[in-house]
Amino acid sequence: MKIDLRYLLGATAVAALSLAGAASAQECPRGDLDERFCDADGDLIADIPEDESQWIDPETLIFAYTPVEDPAVYKTAWSDFIDYLSEKTGKEIVFFPVQSNAAQIEAMRSGRLHISGFNTGSNPLAVNCAGFRPFTIMAGEDGSFGYEMEIITYPGSGIESVEDIKGKQLAFTSPTSNSGFKAPSAILKADYDMLPERDFEPVFSGKHDNSILGVANQDYLAASIANSVMQRMLERDVVSEDQIVSLYKSQTFPTTGYGVVHNLKPDLQEAIEDAFFSFEWEGTSLEEEFSKNGESQFIPITYQEYWDVIRKIDAANDVSYACE
């Protein structure tokens, strides 16, 4: 079955936007959530609408993975899971290769994205502005999960410590990225009294793989990156260990959070959750890609608990969750 993705996204957006004002018309607790959403149970994510007329039940569901690397790599990596998700939901599933965190959030906010993995730093914005309901992350066989932010350089760069970045250039990925911008900004300010523009020149590469390749090829003197992405690139021989020197490693952060848009029909949300938790990784395209950094299952999480440290980093950086 051939699908015109442009037509599909447009039609879904119109349906979603026709319901956009419904939640805003009612008085309800919402915390930092956009006025379109309610949070009566206080779990910090948008409630599923009580009014059944606000539920959506698309014939085709759009799935997107956070744009950390070449989308073509991940269309293949997710193929077996998408087939399983289609079987469990009875829906056609289309992989949507988003090019930026902002575009991904806007796609869900406007009704063009139903199931998604948002990166660590984008999760709060997706939750508060797009009605994203995260419920799982990837973990190792023992239940361990997460990644660290690392600041890296290359051998012979003349940078031997974080302090040596003063007066030089530091590559970030994008303003919505936790490890690619928000966490290093907070850490550099708090621990090293270093501010962008004043103490170093910030540049933005767009993606973690761009930053890692930029350092490996000596285009960037230093960069802040997610080491889970770097590990997968090392495993694929995209870069080699002798091209990279680590200057700093952070505490462990939660990795990409997966979930659904809040107004999907409740039994459809349940079917999607079941697909994540019942999927058998062994021998699949998902295992082939994500086992490179030790991940082998989906485990249940809550945004309220697991993203607490990320919200604190955002507060330290004066990040606003107001939707633009």
Automatic annotation (TrEMBL):
Signal peptide: 1-25
Superkingdom to which the source organism belongs: Bacteria
Entries under InterPro entries matching the protein: PhnD
SUPFAM superfamilies reported in the protein's UniProt record: Periplasmic binding protein-like II
Keywords: Signal
PANTHER family tied to this protein: PHOSPHONATES-BINDING PERIPLASMIC PROTEIN
Protein name: Phosphonate transport system substrate-binding protein
